[in-house]
Design brief:
By secondary structure, the protein is an alpha/beta fold. It is about 25% helix and about 20% strand. The protein binds adenosine-5'-triphosphate and magnesium ion.
Length: about 575
């Protein structure tokens, strides 16, 4: 099945950094135990992928690519009650968007249902599995605890013939949900609870997204996973640490079944992030209870949410490389993810002007209808990004908080009688403040110095502040959504009240934002920098004439500051 599978190509920027799993693979290749590695990414299609999955995707696809092997995308679709086609489609789209390609290696555990059933029969015939009539509660009671051994089920010693008959009738649909299960016959006294006759099959009368009503018994994760690895020729089955205690069962099943190949399981620490919850169950509740706009809400740690927020795939890959892979659980600062994203955006994002909280400036010595055009660079970090034209006229918008009528000490921006530089344009001086009701500043009347075009003065004058601006005659209005952490606490839910830890200010909507006209043409999926303000991306809700932008991140990098202090 995998002999002619093409190698997984790596995205161009995946750095090769060592980690203990990569070292194991390298040693296996060097010793000739394998020719090339075969890995797999095995999502359960019961929700959207999150940033923790991205860590696993980068690891599995990265190792396969580095050593010339390939990585399978395999859906672990053994629980039809929770699984939906929407999730299958979203997972494929997200892995592809992250930059990884499984070629022809798209599989489903459900592809193997017939083979898995055959192997269940094999275990029964060998006296290594039995049909148990105990209820789920009774099985739990019999299982014992970490300190006490379990007790045998009264059905444990059924004959092979009776077990074969009952298993066939389970498959044929004769019994209700939960009436019977198939269990491996291993050791009810094992110190490892996973070996105390684990359940292999359960009865679930539910339609499956792929197999429809063909089955009413479904294999458990434990019975499906290792055997699927064996069928696919997986060499390194990489999963998170909570499966370490399942490994003896993984190995027991492989040893007791006539599988075509012997895979090995390796475990690494899952990703945990501050201010974030990485559990599909909880993320689904946030969606179902309406705390967010959907699975792809820009505050969600899902791949689709991060994409809608404006995080580039390269930033997520960079983050995965930065944090590495270890065998000890830890919590990563969400600022580290933001730092990785900023470092990519700083190199790649086009610079634009947008005014979030506009205040009108009228240049009184500028002729009524005159428009000048200025050619400005798109990205000082990337000369190849070229230039664009911006218009300058008599009426402009500047940021309201760039002006203070009575400036406090250390406020160097615009104030009555003070001169500032308008970036790429002219020096202006404020002469008059026009107020409306309740004393609110409505307009500033300023003059410009015609000798300062481009932002320099021949006499060497250097204003202390440079402001961004947008020509009022050309500005395009927009809605801007500002985002902050979804949870207030770095460790949400620690007190047991997860939803009480939601940050009520995680989304702030600004209307009447004024953008330079070029922003109306920003393609979906592109993130730009509004100079002095941060990174922004058009939202999927954006329409011609009704633009919506999301703030991806501010420019302030708290993680870089922590690093600089050696913290
Ligand atoms: P969740 O806890 O969010 O429901 P899961 O482990 O049940 O996640 P799966 O779809 O079964 O989700 O996961 C697919 C793969 O992604 C597994 O190999 C799993 O180990 C890995 N994975 C899931 N969460 C993380 C994480 N936080 N960090 C790293 N890898 C993860
Ligand atoms: Mg899982």
């Amino acid at each position: 099945m995998t002999a002619d599978s093409p190698a997984s190509p790596a995205p161009p920027d995946v750095p090769e950094r060592s980690n203990f799993i990569r070292d194991i693979v390298a040693a296996d290749v060097a010793a000739g135990r394998i020719e090339v590695p075969v890995t797999r990414f095995p999502p359960e299609p019961n929700g959207y992928l999150h940033i923790g999955h991205a860590k696993s995707i980068c690891l599995n696809f990265g190792i396969a690519a580095e050593f010339g092997g390939h990585c399978n995308l395999r859906f672990d679709d053994t629980n039809p009650v929770k699984e939906e086609q929407e999730y299958l489609d979203a997972i494929e789209a997200d892995v592809r968007w992250l930059g990884f390609d499984w070629g022809g290696n798209l599989f489903h555990a459900s592809d193997y249902f017939e083979q898995l059933y055959g192997w269940a029969v094999h275990l029964v015939k060998a006296g290594r599995a039995y049909v148990d009539d105990l209820s789920a509660d009774e099985i739990r009671e019999h299982r014992g605890t970490l300190t006490e051994p379990g007790r045998d089920s009264p059905y444990r010693d059924r004959s092979v013939a009776e077990n074969l008959d009952l298993l066939a009738r389970m498959r044929a649909g004769e019994f209700e949900n939960g009436a019977r299960v198939l269990r491996a016959k291993i050791d009810m006294a094992s110190p490892n609870i996973n070996l105390r006759d684990p359940v292999l099959y359960r009865i679930v009368h539910a339609s499956h997204p792929r197999t429809g009503d063909a089955w009413c018994i479904y294999p458990t994760y434990d019975f499906a996973h290792g055997q699927s690895d064996a069928i696919e020729g997986v060499t390194h089955s990489i999963c998170t640490l909570e499966f370490e205690v399942h490994r003896p069962l993984y190995d027991w099943l492989i040893a007791n079944l006539p599988v075509p190949h012997i895979p090995h399981q390796y475990e690494f620490a899952r990703l945990n992030l501050t201010h974030t919850v990485l559990s599909k169950r909880v993320l689904k509740r946030l969606v179902d209870d309406g705390h967010v706009r959907g699975w792809d809400d820009p505050r969600m740690p899902t791949i689709s949410g991060l994409r809608r927020r404006g995080f580039p795939a390269a930033g997520i890959r960079e983050f995965a490389a930065m944090i590495g892979v270890a065998r000890t659980d830890s919590v990563i600062e969400v600022g580290q993810l933001e730092h990785a994203v900023r470092s990519v955006l700083n190199r790649t994002a086009a610079r634009r002007f947008g005014v979030l909280d506009p205040l009108k400036v009228v240049i009184t010595n500028w002729p009524e209808d005159r428009i000048e055009t200025m050619e400005v660079v798109n990205n000082p970090e990337d000369p190849g990004a070229g230039t664009r034209i911006v218009e300058f006229g008599r009426e402009l918008w500047i940021e309201r908080d760039d002006f203070m009528e009575e400036p406090v000490p250390k406020f160097f921006r615009l104030a009555p009688g003070r001169e500032v530089r308008l970036r790429n344009a002219y020096f202006v001086t404020c002469h008059e403040v026009v107020k409306g009701d309740a004393g609110r500043v409505m307009e500033l009347r300023c003059s410009y110095d015609p000798l300062t075009r481009g932002g320099d003065s021949p006499d060497g004058r250097r204003p202390k502040a440079t402001l961004h601006w947008v020509s009022a005659a050309h500005a395009v209005p927009a809605e801007v959504r500002l985002y902050d952490h979804l949870f207030n606490r770095p460790d949400p839910g620690t007190d047991g009240h997860l939803f009480a830890d939601l940050n009520p200010a995680s989304e702030t909507i600004l209307n009447g934002v004024m953008l330079e006209p070029a922003l109306a043409d920003t393609p979906p999926g592109e993130t730009v920098q509004f100079e002095r303000l941060g990174y922004f991306t058009p939202d999927a809700d954006s329409r011609p004439g009704a633009l919506v932008f999301n703030r991806t991140l501010t420019l302030k990098d708290t993680w870089a500051k922590v690093q600089a202090k050696g913290g």
